Amino acid sequence: MFFIKRFARFYSVMVPSVVILAVAYGLVMQINPDLYRFQGDANLFSIKALLTFSFLNFNSFVYAKLPGGAPFWSLTYEFWYYVIFALIVFLPKRWMAIPAAIAIFAVLGLDALSLWPVWLLGVVTYWASKRVTWGTRTAGLLYGLSLVGLVTLSLSGWRYSYLSLDYHFGWDWRYASHAVYYFLLGLLMSLNFLAFIAWSKHQKVDIAPWLEIPIRHMAGVSFTLYLIHVPLMLTLYALLGGYGIHYLLPVLAIAIVVVIGQPIEQSKFAYQNALSAIA
After folding, report:
1. Quick one: pLDDT at residue 174?
2. Which of these, 58, 70, 5, 119, lies nearest to 227 by C-alpha position?
3. Is 32 within 8 Å of 238 (Cβ atoms)?
């Protein structure tokens, strides 16, 4: 059931996103091909798509980028992180997870290993969110400190200097160049999240339905937005002949995903049923 839910979650968003990537590429190439100069091309598209759906598109040996599909690298890493997590949790002999994890990271590469602690931080935060018991004053203090830390870290510029692996080691770490920065950022966000949970328990905070529903809706469609925001904005740029009003393209892209994102999100239940029937 663990993998059925994971596959359903991934494929319910990945399949329509790859279709949208293909349509956007075909349309933009007819209007302004130069927009895809740095966004990849459709050469061997079917093979790239197959590698993407197999979570083998980004590793030490393969770099198969769909046009406008750069965000898909993180899904590949996330999928294999889930595999390692499942091996650790579900294998009767848990020590066997160690050589399996070593083999997986040998294929994925050093950057995937460097980003793994960021993913693990999310697991720990979820676990801690069910058990946090800080008092009101402590929670408020930690919440305030986390906000100060987030603002300070974001404005420091250390992401590209002191906290950059490229800066210190002088070679291309690909997506893991800012792994240390992301971990510290995630740590502060986790502290912020946990502090608010602890504070809200004491204050008995209750979100009104009129506010909770759109929040849950936006959270649900954020996965789709993450995967297709680039091809959407490139298509809008091509159709509108430029940016137009400042922030117009991202606002329109978000509006489109708000409309199409919900049925995509809900399709995961159909995938679950289909995969359960096969299994």
Report:
1. 77
2. 70
3. yes
Q: How far is CA 49 from CA 55, 72, 78, 233, in A?
A: 10, 11, 17, 21
Burial class (CB in 10 A: 0-12, 13-18, 19+), 73: buried
The predicted structure's pLDDT at residue 239: 93
- Looking at residue 66, what DSSP letter applies? P
Spans of the chain, pLDDT less than 70: none
- 221/257 Cα distance (integer angstroms): 7
* Residue 101 identity (one-letter amino acid): A
d(CA 60, CA 224): 26
Q: Which helix (H) or strand (E) holds 203?
A: helix 179-203
**SS3 state at 55:** coil
pLDDT of res. 276: 87
CA atoms within 13 A on the CB side of 117: 14
pLDDT tens digits, one per residue of 182-209: 999 999 999 999 999 999 888 877 777 8
Length of the chain in residues, anyone? 279
Can you give the pLDDT at residue 100? Answer: 94
The residues, any chain, with a CB within 8 Å of residue 153's CB and separated by 6 or more, are: 181, 184, 185, 188
